[in-house]
Every structure is written in C-alpha cells, then in structure tokens.
Design brief:
Blueprint (H helix, E strand, L loop, with lengths): L20 E10 L2 E9 L4 H25 L7 H6 L6 E4 L1 H16 L9 H6 L4 H7 L26 H8 L7 E5 L5 E5 L4 E3 L2 E3 L9 H15 L5 E5 L2 E4 L5 H5 L5 E6 L10 E7 L2 E7 L4 E4 L2 E4 L2 E2 L4 E2 L12 E9 L2 H13 L2 H12 L5 E7 L5 E5 L6 E3 L8 E2 L1
Helix pairs in contact: 1-7, 3-9, 7-9, 9-10
The protein binds adenosine monophosphate and magnesium ion (MG).
Adenosine monophosphate binds next to α9.
C-alpha cells in the first residue's frame, strides 16, 4: 500500500506531472539494435526508482528470451532448430516464439503473403540472413553449413542468383507449411508441414524468419511490463519499433499535452549516419517503420533490398518487369494499436507497389485504428510523401520533401 501514497500522485489519483522527471535505460546488447526505455515519474520517491529498475530488469529478461529463442542468428534458437528440421518434423518452442509465429502467420494471411515469415529461404538466397551476413563479413556462418547457391560477395554485393533457385525456393513459401501446436503439458511446438523441394539436384526445407516482426513484439511486451510496474508515462523503442505510452516531458507538461515527439529516420540517409526526417506527435500508440534503405546492394543494375517479396521471390520491386516506372515505396511508418502487427504490416507495405500499399491501407487498416506515412522514390530522383495524419500530428523535418499528400 506504500506505493499508492507515493509522491507524484496529486488529487483524486491524478499524477502531478510537473513533479515528474525522466529516466532512460539503454542497451545495445540485443538484435544488433538500440533498445531504449524511457520512464516518467516522480523519481525523488525511492520507491518509484526501485520500480523503474525492476521494470528494466524484467525487460532485460524479455530481450534475452526473444533473442535466444526467435533469432536466426543463434544456431540453438527455436527458429534455427525449426529451420534445420526435415519436412514432417516438429520442435518444442518457448511460448513467446509460438506467439510471435502465430501472429506472423495471421498477418501473412491478412497481407495476402506480402509479409510472410516463411520467406526465410528467399531471405537467405538473396544474402540477407545471419548466415549470409557472416559470410560477407568473413565471420563463421552462424554455425550453419554453406548452401549450393552461395555466391561470393564483392564490394558488399552479391551476383544475382540462378533463377531456378528463386523459383524453387519460392515454392517453400506459404503459411500452410508451418503449424503452431499447443501440446498441453508438453508446451508449444512448431511443426514443419511444407514438403521439401528439389532444385538443381539439391533438397531444400521450409524455413521461417521472424526478423520482420519480433522487434514489434518486444515493444508490445515492454509496454505491458511498464504498465505492470505502474508506469503510464514513457516509451519503449526496439530499433524501429516503438511503443508510446503518455509523454510527460517538460514541454509536454507545459503545453498540457500527452503526446510524444517520435522521430522517424530518413529513408535516404545511410544506416550509419541516420537523419531524422519526420516528427510525429502521438501517444498510446505504436510506431513502426520499415524501409529498404536499411540494407541493400546493387547488382547488375538491380537494387536488392532486404525486404523480399515472397510473392515474386525477388527483393521488393526487383522482379523482372517490376519497378520499371521508377516509382517505389521507400519507407513506411505505421501508427496503430499494436507494435507486433505494425512491424509486420510496415514490412508488408514496403514490398507492395505504392498504389497497392495505399489501397491496402485504405481498405484494411484505416478503419482499424491505423495511420500511415508512406515515402516514395519518384522517377525524377525525388521523393513523395503520403499520409493519413493531420498537419498537427506530423512535421516534415527534411527540406525539399514538399508537402505531404493526404490520403
Ligand atoms: P523489418 O526491418 O521489420 O522491415 O524486417 C525486415 C526483415 O524481415 C528482413 O531483414 C528479413 O529478415 C525479413 N523479411 C524480409 N522480407 C520479408 C517478408 N516479405 N515477410 C516477412 N519477413 C521478411
Ligand atoms: Mg517489420
């Protein structure tokens, strides 16, 4: 009961935000990304400080579990053990892996396969798996064997793969190939239903990649943990997946606002020197950003990003005949009720053509509490910006982008 009498709680249980100070915890130890917890409370109260430390410690446990279980970079993770299975096999998995995989499969259905966790073999073929990155960086291949389609990296780029592999591995994609099974007292299992495929005399198995959704799951769970420790004011970010609670920054208090200032980095800046190009104002929402700018190489005049279109087997916009008009999605930011879905949906919208992404948003997301900011690369080398946000919710920081077009 001591907690309830803590300083910072004004009349009728309304917290006195003017007494709030900020605490920030950061870690670079997981997902090769910045994880950052920001909490606002009256930290002159030692009890609040203790709760903050306990909250960060619990989030540390979450990060450890999700990375150890869901990362393809760890040879002993649930994902790696599933990927090594022959068709018809199954492996026990952590409940968190089961939850992420189940949500990923649902979102694959919703997006008509634009997002699909079973794109794993294609992600590897195009050189965007931990195994391929290890080969590029001259490190041991994440404990995984070489593949028959491996090509030598040159200046950070891979030659185009043999079309027979693209076509063959595409046949391993599909939600029916993976089942999330609850085995009662024996816990959760992932089962591999997809038959193996043979390409150029080699046998390949279905594989999953949860890299497009796991960070969103972390943000949602972190928000749940924050509330569980009594924090209603703060934010959590895991790379480009953010969960916003209410803000109590000094400026926000002075303006009587509960909004956060959430920054989005420029799709045209380099990953090692990211620049902010959007400022969003929001609270009690998730913010998820995806874009091909993070990781890509050019080969034979084709721009290959780490966002693979499972429907074509090629990187987004790189299939023969695609992207000829020179207009494509550069980045997508989705604001909405759930970071897990936001992460997967942002990835999905990035692999779609701009018109397809805009109509998907309109038909499936707008009415369900989502907002969109979509940046395009235009044929003249410029960029376009499309958004459902109002002028008071969005500020374009980069000169030369022009006024956003409202949808
Ligand atoms: P994100 O940064 O959330 O957009 O996720 C990108 C990562 O998701 C990539 O690096 C791949 O590991 C994986 N991925 C790429 N394309 C897809 C796709 N179409 N569906 C699901 N996962 C994907
Ligand atoms: Mg994503």
């Amino acid at each position: 009961m001591e907690h309830e009498a803590s300083a910072g709680t004004g009349t009728a249980g309304i917290p006195d935000r003017s007494r709030f100070t900020k605490r920030v915890y950061t870690s670079l130890a997981y997902f090769q990304a910045l994880n950052q917890l920001t909490l606002y409370a009256d930290f002159r109260d030692p009890e609040a400080a203790r709760r903050a430390d306990a909250c960060w410690a619990e989030i540390g446990g979450l990060l450890e579990t999700v990375e150890r279980r869901a990362s393809a970079a760890r040879p002993d993770s649930d994902v790696s053990r599933f990927n090594a299975l022959p068709s018809g096999g199954s492996v026990p998995v952590d409940p968190s892996t089961a939850r992420i995989a189940a949500r990923a499969l649902e979102l694959a259905e919703l997006t008509g396969g634009a997002f699909d966790p079973t794109a794993g073999p294609l992600v590897d073929l195009w050189g965007f798996s931990p195994r391929a990155y290890a080969a590029r960086d001259g490190a041991a291949g994440a404990g995984l064997p070489p593949m028959p389609y491996d090509r030598a990296w040159r200046d950070g780029a891979l030659p185009l793969p043999d079309a027979r592999y693209i076509e063959g591995l595409r046949r391993l994609v599909g939600t029916a190939g993976v089942a999330v099974e609850e085995g009662g007292s024996s816990g959760w299992r992932l089962a591999k239903r997809a038959p193996s495929v043979e390409v150029c005399g080699h046998e390949f198995q279905a594989q999953i990649d949860l890299g497009g959704i796991a960070k969103g799951y972390v943000a949602d769970e972190a928000a749940r943990i924050m509330r569980g420790h009594g924090f209603d004011y703060g934010s959590y970010s895991c790379a480009s997946s953010i969960a916003l609670l209410k803000s109590a920054g000094r400026l926000a208090v002075r303006r009587g606002s509960l909004d956060f200032n959430a920054y989005v980095s420029d799709p045209c800046s380099t990953p090692d020197a990211p620049e902010n190009y959007l400022l969003l104002k929001a609270h009690d929402r998730s913010v998820s950003t995806s874009g091909g700018y993070g990781r890509f190489y050019e080969t034979g005049g084709v721009r290959c990003t780490h966002l693979i279109d499972p429907r074509t087997g090629y990187p987004a916009g790189a299939a023969p005949g695609e992207g000829r008009a020179g207009r494509r999605v550069a980045s997508v930011t989705l604001l909405g009720p759930e970071a897990t879905a936001g992460d997967a949906l942002a990835t999905a919208l990035c692999v779609m053509e701009p018109e397809e992404a805009a109509s998907f948003f309109d038909e499936r997301l707008r009415g369900a509490g989502w907002d969109l900011v979509l940046a395009t690369d235009e044929p003249d080398g410029g960029h376009g910006l499309l958004t459902s946000l109002g002028p008071d919710e969005l500020c374009v920081l980069k000169p030369g982008l022009g006024a956003p077009r409202r949808i």
